[in-house]
Amino acid sequence: MLRTVVIYGLTDFVLLLLLVISVCSISATTSISQTTQLSDDGHTKSFWTNAAPIPTPRSEVSATSLGDAVYVIGGFDTYGQPTNIVEVYSTKNNTWKSAAPLPHPLHHTAATSFDGKIYVVGGFFDNQWTPSNRLFIYDPLKNQWYEGKQMHTARGALTANFINGILYAVGGQSFSSSSSSYPILATNEAYDTVSNTWITKPSMPTARHHAASAAVNGKLYVIGGRVTPISPTVNVNVNEVYDPEKNTWTSLEAMPSKRSGIAAANFDITSIYVFGGEEPSKTFNNNERYDIKTNKWFFETPMPTARHGLGVASVDNRIYVIGGGPQPGLSESNANEIFHVIR
Questions:
Q1: Which of 46, 83, 181, 237 could join 258 via S-S bond, C-beta 3.0 to 4.6 A?
Q2: Of the candidates 58, 36, 39, which has an alpha carbon nearest to the alpha carbon of residue 273?
Q3: Average confidence (pLDDT) over 189-215
Q4: Is the CA virtual torsion 222, 313, 135, 261 positive or negative?
Q5: Does 79 lie in the same domain as 12?
Q6: Which residues contact 232 (CB under 8 A, 6 or more apart)?
């Protein structure tokens, strides 16, 4: 009789234990789904966290990384004035510090890094949107800026990336004093760091400004942008790639959404992420990923804060999305949101 009771109690315990394990498993699964999801191609989707806010809220900035540091450069301040402020975020310590300011206040520049230095090209000088053809080069070891050869074409809201030691400055918007208009450009100019010279390369098929770009595996991808002067009334979702070896452009699968005032970063040699943007009535929190191998786009977890004119830079498996305007037009933020890429 006693044996029967013991066996019954053990069976009951096992059943209870299995029930507890099942409940815990369900709870754990629920917890995971709150922070990580599946993107529409079936990959584990990355997640967002907040980091120390940038000390100076800004928009229409440029950003790039050197080592484990992210540099946020120029832009509009909270008073709507162009600034020359440069602030540096330590991805290891989650802290900010100031670097030597730009030689001139500028907004809508393009920034990229190569061989331990930062290159800032183009932009607009003032609230009159006077375009710049200046090239400023920052040496972090000396905390000093010096000037390189000027671009042939003055312009702002352009993109810039290095491929094999050559800086490609593409697209943007200029100014014509004769007609008081702002021509939209397809210009593609290449800067050689060794000879300190610029040469003209084949223009983009689609003239545009406020686009995003990324250099991946020896090719330059230029995505989105706008085709109307200043105001984002006509955005595009064009995706075009330049091959420096063949010296040709090719059209690729268009981005799912039409956006401008965007920024992009690549993750390894397979993916380009395009963040944010604006149109006249709203800003975007979109995060769309282009898969280079399949020539397809996928939706990723949206940004916590919708913004345009933001700075983006990647370090290891994290993409830092900083500053930018939460409302269309002139607005700014101190947001520093990190997209953790898990593939």
A1: 237
A2: 39
A3: 98
A4: positive
A5: no
A6: 210, 226, 260, 261, 277, 278, 279, 280, 308, 328
